[in-house]
Amino acid sequence: MGQIVTLDQNMINMIAAGEVIERPASVVKELMENSIDAGATKIDVAVEDGGRKLISVTDNGSGMDADDLSLAFESHATSKIKTSADLHTISTLGFRGEALASIASVAQVKAISRPKDSLSANCIEIDCGSKGAVNPCSANFGTTIEVRDIFYKLPARRKFLKTANTEFGHIAEQFIRIALPNSAIDMTLSHNGREIYHTNGNTGLRQRISELFSNEIAENLIEAKTDENGLRILALLGKPDISKTNNNYQYIFLNGRYIRDKFISHAIREAYRGSLEPDRFPVVFIFIQMPFEDYDVNVHPTKIEVRFYNTNLLHSQILATLRSKLLATNLDIRAKLPSEQTFGSELRHKEITEAMSEFFKKYRTVTTQQRFNFPTAGRHTAYSPVSEKFPPPGTGQASAFRKFLQIHDSFIVTESEEGFAIIDQHALHERIIYENLCNRIKNGNLESQRLLLPASFELTDAQTELLQKNAELLEKLGIEIVPFGPKTMAIQAFPTILSKSDPVDFIHDLMDLLADKNLFVETDRLLEKILDMAACKAAIKAGQKLTDNEIEQLLADRFIVECASRCPHGRPTTIKFSIAELEKQFKRT
Ligand code: ADP
Ligand code: MG
């Protein structure tokens, strides 16, 4: 006898539920999406025991009449598509007609619905696939669906549910993903009778972000927008101050649907490169609008992944939008002084106040007179200026730095308009050199100078070959190397801007980079690494005493170099303190 049988419909639904309904949060997602598709302007979600006991979603949407209410729980029953052509232009969140059938196959479900024009409501109950009759009842316009005791007939799956807190965490995350792109809809989420989120329908996106996350996040977002090639992008980009240790705060929405996409994630990472340390992740909200026919949502059961027909365009437009905004924005870190409420004790408050007054006692004002008493011409200087455009003292930008102070030969404290800033001299100089190198290489005007005494070094055959293979790159960098004897080469010319670093030492590190196969694949990345390394070597170091002239020049260059607020490694170059914070600390306000 044959071994094969066709499964009954309930088994089919249960198997489908395995894909769509992973945990209570999946039910919340599907039900909320249905409410949105039904045109609701208000959605209330109430759960008990992390959704294990009850999930209830009430909306004021279009509702369903008696026939539809019964049909809605059949598998492949949907009002959202009719023909295969509709599959290419899906504008609703749902379309597979699977969710309600799947949910009802693994839990006790009660649905009450009343269409807009109807005098009465109807209700239906389904217990793990066995469907009762539709009965009239009384209810407001819209739909309520209650899902109790999920997986209660499937002990193996029920056992996999985590604690109420964990399950509620997943529910809250789903709620956030739906609430964010639908900022015109009033939504609440409550757990065990306590309201956790309430987002108002008419207060806008930033307010919604502050309600769902925090004021701190909402206040530290930079907005970038583009509308080109039929692609509309709105991005709210978290400043580096609020970066995270993981990727959980990266929200991408496509036509109102939360999605994950590795190309978009890559574009975000690239856009922030140099603005963030490598192990930090930005807070990002990206809302993409594009024609429905430009992508396929029918590739993943929960539709969290989609297939774009023109990934390259999307990638480059997102990267360009984000990158240009981030580069044009001053991303200096703002120092956070503890507020009074957060002081552990009076003692700590006193300690901080004393430390600050101590600091200001030492703070001296450098006058223009003092600074120009010491001519530096002809003597060896630690800092070689990169800008020729430095305005004469007392005019324009220079007057912004009337006051500064080098502390511990490593940091420069300078007065700024809003208060004062502490600058990491190495990090800033490194960034200046890096940007300068990039610009010069781009414009082909990287000057190099002939060394009075060629610097010779020994190398292996493999290294010789490596240098020969990269002759073009060396030329681009302004480095001239000639054979000098058996297994010996000599550096004859070296970039002027790197004159502070040792040429031989530089070439050795360069060869290490060239030998790194991973970097070799992407030429841009390799060049970037080389410039990065060059800038680090040539920059003034921490612990190096600077003359007033040098400091002044360094501060001036800061404004000439684009994006000078971060060193190439992504470490901050500057930390700002506002006078308002200081006044608060000194109890002046
Ligand atoms: P899909 O959303 O993919 O169409 P579902 O199983 O989620 O499939 O829902 C089946 C149908 O039930 C929907 O197409 C819709 O017509 C109806 N429906 C579900 N939820 C609601 C709701 N909250 N309000 C009005 N109609 C709904
Ligand atoms: Mg649905």
Largest sheet: 9 strands, mixed
Mean pLDDT: 84
Q: Give the number of DSSP strands.
A: 24
Rg to the nearest angstrom? Answer: 32 Å
Proportion in β-strands: 15-25%
In helices, the fraction of residues equals 25-40%
Number of H/I helices: 20
First-to-last CA distance: 90 Å
Give the ligands present: adenosine-5'-diphosphate, magnesium ion
Taking pLDDT < 50 over at least 5 consecutive residues as the criterion, the unreliable ranges are 340-345, 359-380, 388-401
Structural class by sheet pairing and helices: alpha+beta
Summarize this entry quickly.
By secondary structure, this protein is α+β, with helices and mostly antiparallel strands. 36% of the residues lie in helices and 22% in strands.
Element layout with pairings:
Blueprint: H1 9-20, H2 24-37, E1 42-48, E2 54-59, H3 66-71, H4 99-105, E3 108-114, E4 121-127, E5 130-131, E6 135-137, E7 142-148, H5 155-159, H6 164-179, E8 186-191, E9 194-199, H7 205-212, H8 215-219, E10 221-228, E11 231-238, E12 250-254, E13 257-259, H9 262-272, E14 284-289, E15 295-296, E16 307-308, H10 311-328, E17 333-334, H11 346-362, H12 368-371, E18 404-407, E19 411-415, E20 419-424, H13 425-443, E21 448-458, H14 461-469, H15 471-476, E22 480-485, E23 488-495, H16 503-515, H17 517-521, H18 523-538, H19 548-560, E24 574-578, H20 579-585
Parallel strand pairs: 1-8, 12-14, 17-24
Antiparallel strand pairs: 1-2, 2-7, 3-4, 3-7, 4-5, 4-6, 8-9, 10-11, 11-14, 12-13, 15-16, 18-19, 19-20, 20-24, 21-23, 22-23
Helix pairs in contact: 1-4, 2-6, 9-10, 13-18, 16-18
Bound molecules: adenosine-5'-diphosphate (ADP) and magnesium ion.
Magnesium ion is lined by residues 30, 33-34, 94, 99.
